[in-house]
Amino acid sequence: MTLFWPIAALVVGLAVLTIGGDLLVRGAERLALFFRVSALVVGLTVVAFGTSAPEAAVTLQAALIGSEIGIGNVIGSNIFNVLFILGLSAALAPLIVSSILIRRDVPLMVLGSLAVYISLLDRAWGKLEGLLAVLALVAYTIWIVRSSRRESALAAQFDEAILVQPEPETSTLRRLVTDLGLIVGGLALMIVAARVLIWGAVGIARAFEVSELVIGLTIVAAGTSLPEVMTSVIASLRGQRDIAVGNIVGSNLFNLLFVLGLAGVVSPNPITISGKALWFDMPIMVVVAVACLPIFFDGRINRWEGFLFLFYYVVYVVYMIMIETGSGYLSPFRKMLLFFAAPLTLITLALSIRSALRKHWLAAADDNE
């Protein structure tokens, strides 16, 4: 009887998340048509920023009370976004990655991750760092929206997949209000559903006497990313794969620059970070961001690469739990990762990059002929 309500919360939360995600993706598609910008830009901005609202709420609340859980939530969410959400989306349906995303947004995500990591080497995140991060996101958003509208005609010549065709009918204010209503309504449903789902998951974890620390390391970061999960998965299944990939990259940039930046601005004291998070979790976040470059290089995320991301997320969570619980299997697990999993992954990625380069060279040779 004790588990009835938590389990019911999980079921209801998942159902409402699915409905909200479908509304959000539909609204984003229609909004792209209305403003005649690419679906990628909508995914990088409106969808990404909206689905990151739970991370913003948790992180800002934590900053106001001086808790470290906020910065941990950002780090954990960024890892979860790439390894789990992008991995799951690609496992369900191979994703096409636009050339603009590879050249512009993914490198910016890597630079943003590195910049935040370097800024936190003194184990403090203050108002100056926060303000600079927020200004960087504002500049980025203005830049990509202007670039999309200015270069839409040119984009069709080298990457037709990212361009949304103009709406044949005249757009009206009523249509715009409807589109925004779908986005806001879907987002509101997803935020409420995410809170219900987190409550149910925590209730089940406590019923089985799982420690609060393990709950925080897994459920909080994953729970606040549930809107991104449903949005990217539904977008992938509906064929809006630019929204699926753009949502993840945009969400990570939003988390790093706006969520963490605003937290630094509003926090009464500099936000501190533990040594473990600085030397273990943050390097993992940076490595995960860097790993997107070779994976995205050939313009496609295949199913096996999606499963590889999912595998490494499971490895990350298991390793994290082993560290916190002082497991006796930690040393053998490290050796397995170091001498088997890591070399096998590097060899696989090298072969994938080689294959992608070979395709580019053959295509260039054919064009020259």
Describe the SSE topology.
Elements: H1 4-35, H2 39-51, H3 53-64, H4 69-92, E1 95-96, H5 99-119, E2 124-125, H6 127-158, H7 173-207, H8 212-224, H9 226-237, H10 241-266, E3 271-272, H11 275-296, E4 300-301, H12 303-325, H13 330-368
Antiparallel strand pairs: 1-4, 2-3
Helix pairs in contact: 1-2, 1-7, 1-9, 2-10, 3-4, 3-10, 4-8, 4-9, 4-10, 4-11, 4-12, 5-10, 5-11, 6-10, 7-8, 8-12, 9-10, 12-13
CATH architecture group name of the largest domain: Up-down Bundle
**E-strand count:** 4
| CATH homologous superfamily title of the largest domain | NCX, central ion-binding region
Class computed from helices, strands and strand pairing: mainly alpha
**β-sheet strand percentage:** under 5%
Top-tier CATH class of the largest domain: Mainly Alpha
**How much helicity do the residues have?**
over 70%
Key structural traits:
369 residues, mainly alpha, A middle domain of Talin 1, two-stranded antiparallel sheet, 13 helices, 82% helix, 2% strand, globular
Account of the 3D structure:
- With 369 residues, the chain is mainly alpha-helical.
- The protein folds into two domains: 4-325, Up-down Bundle (A middle domain of Talin 1); 328-369.
- The chain is 82% helix and 2% strand.
- The strands form two sheets. A two-stranded antiparallel ribbon has the order 1-4. Strands 2-3 form a two-stranded antiparallel sheet.
- The model is unreliable at 155-170 (pLDDT under 50).
